[in-house]
Amino acid sequence: MTEDSKKQQSHQRKMEKLKDSVDATIASADVERGVSILLTGNGKGKSSSAFGMVMRALGYDFRVGVVQFIKGEQLSGEEIYVRDKCPEVTFYQMGTGFTWDTQDRSGDIEAAVRTWEVAAKMLSDPSYHLVVLDELTYMLSFKYLDQAMVMAALSGRPDNQSVVVTGRGGGSALIEWADTVSELKEVKHAYNAGIMARRGVDF
Amino acid sequence: MTEDSKKQQSHQRKMEKLKDSVDATIASADVERGVSILLTGNGKGKSSSAFGMVMRALGYDFRVGVVQFIKGEQLSGEEIYVRDKCPEVTFYQMGTGFTWDTQDRSGDIEAAVRTWEVAAKMLSDPSYHLVVLDELTYMLSFKYLDQAMVMAALSGRPDNQSVVVTGRGGGSALIEWADTVSELKEVKHAYNAGIMARRGVDF
User: Fold this and answer.
1) Which residues pair with B38 in a beta bridge?
2) What is the ipTM of this complex?
């Protein structure tokens, strides 16, 4: 047998095994309903991943809701895009600026509660296929929102609705609740090497 | 002092500290150029994060290139969206089906090389603000593409161009090269609880 055909044979054996394992995992999943996803950790990519899922849903013309907690007054690229190009997306921003800029706890709480009302409405409306609650975790860790109230709305949402929650931390209730949890670990970050945040990539 | 004003004062102190630290990090970054990002690990969200950055770039009307290695013959939501709604995006898929389905090493290598040629062209064209090389890591770990050739093209790209590489693994050369590396750790995944992949969220 030539070296090449040996390689091909060994490759085929490995790939057969991988295919069996992938097929088995897929076959064993048989519950069809909306999923809940938590994207947490200190690494880059949580909000952009949520917006990638927005694009995914838009590919099938599904209705999408996006509520952003904390985010600043300046729109970033994906926010401009969603606002200008995506009428299927209901988009709401707390828009009070970063909480570490305002330094006003009671004002922030009022804004958080007002923003939560928008989210809660989406979470009870089955016409939304996907709801993104960007940076919601901070509202819980700062105790701006009542955790029991938030968890009840997340858990009580329509069967067919998927939800993505992003933000560092998040606590055990969110991790317990979510079907899928990815932790984004910062292995390294450009700004630690003195490289500025890049328009159209970082914001 | 009332309980509330104590809370407000302590909150303000904490937020001042946080603001100082955020401001200092931003101020110390003064190099402006395209960034390189590696999204790796076994958790959900790598490709969707890359597509979120595509949306971010589109918000500023930047030109974007997306090359997908490995991906199957069936388009997923974000791919349908990009193909149908985003003329600013040059989109290319290897399109040979999953390598564990084809089980044909030499055919896969040919397809990988053909696909790489498309990527290499983008990496030498300064009109692309952002280039996404989705699942490129597997081409290196399967040794379908020569690592030195790939790294030379990634490193030699135009100064203003940003690149996002996704996929599990990736090896030390990619980690060394990238300005920002996020590792997506799977804390839990819906399919392990028997929940099917969801259209418009998972694909």
Assistant:
1) B165, B181
2) 0.84
